[in-house]
Amino acid sequence: MKKISILMGALALAGGFASCSDDDTPALNTPESFVLNTPPTADQYYELTPGGTIALSCSQPDYGFVAAATYGVEMSLDKSEDNVYAIESNAPSQAAFTISQEAVAMGFCKLNGIETVDQWNELNPGYAPIYIRATAQLNKGGVGLVKSNWIELKNVKPYFAVPTPGFIYLVGTPSEWSMNLTETLKNWRLYEDDKAIGSKIYTGVFNIPAGDVLFRLYSELDGNWDTFSYGPANNHNGDAVASDGAFNITCEFNADGEFTDGIKATKDNFHFPNWDGGQVTIIVDMSKEDAMTVTMVRGEHKPVVSNYAYMVGNNGGWVVPDAESVYATDWRLTDEGATGIYTGTFQMPADFGADGDKLYCRFYDALNGWGAAKWSAAADGSNVDAFSGIALPTVQGEGCFVLAGAAGHSVTVNLDANNNEVTFTIND
User: Fold this and answer.
1) Which pLDDT does position 405 carry in this prediction?
2) What is the pTM of this model?
3) Which of 138, 315, 328, 337 meets the CB 3.0–4.6 Å disulfide criterion with 14?
């Protein structure tokens, strides 16, 4: 029997072959290219919208055997290899798929270096051409990676699609119980930190006049008092029933001028009956639905900034890394106090599908879609084996760290951004 080449491991990952024979052992033949079809609407005008899609189709790359490829898309403004933006297809296992127009708009902003509304207004883009090509690989680790021809969409009008900090509202006596999106109510917003978009941790500093203070929090304003409302998690000390049926929960600051409580979806109000007036810093953590908290500190305080890094890979199912994805809360590493050291301990899935027991991942400093990660295994997109307890260098790129034996285990990750190193530790 002939020896099985190393490439057979790649075939297995792609759902390939478990046995071989002298005569019919398949061999991986990675083609140089494949064809992305120019859509019949390529000459038409695309005015991008958040909910819109663009339909694409391509040929199946000839790997020398029947193989299930995973398809993606890259866009460029000039077909430059140095400045591309990766977009996930809605059906990555199919050769006919769509991509979201929102992702294209985000790519346009990213490729133009647009980060603010002012930059967007200065550019003032109208209809312009963009270039798109398809990618195919046998797994997300990059085995059999091949790229198609470029196609041109000649008239595309983008929109400003840069992730901005989320916010919630303080609604109550300080804001005159307003539910209208007025300039007054905008002054009662709590915002995510610019470096933690998608964290669902909101901070606001408010000057609240003395008096009987009642308020609750709203994640959205739809004109309905009953929806998107959050108040104290504990109502054992409710001292009165409000006219709308909600309890007013008496709250007190401790000797250090601080108040902390859990919050939940409710119309109950925080009640400070003898507020003596002045500034207060409010921090609301809604990152975990079952463990939401509010912290209030008298005076204006700059909270300890927690920076985040996001582990993106087959741990999260290779979904698009944006602020609404699982990476935003379930797969983030925390750097408390901006020390440059990000840590996190994660329970890995029982298996990684076609990847077996191997974790494939890289680390992003922001969830703005696909593209080069700030901390990856290799700049050229190749993968690097990782071993428990061994520090590895990181570089900007799209290469993945590959940790065998991770499936079903708790894994601690230490990312040292000061020295650009990452260490994986399998705990059990």
Assistant:
1) 94
2) 0.52
3) 138
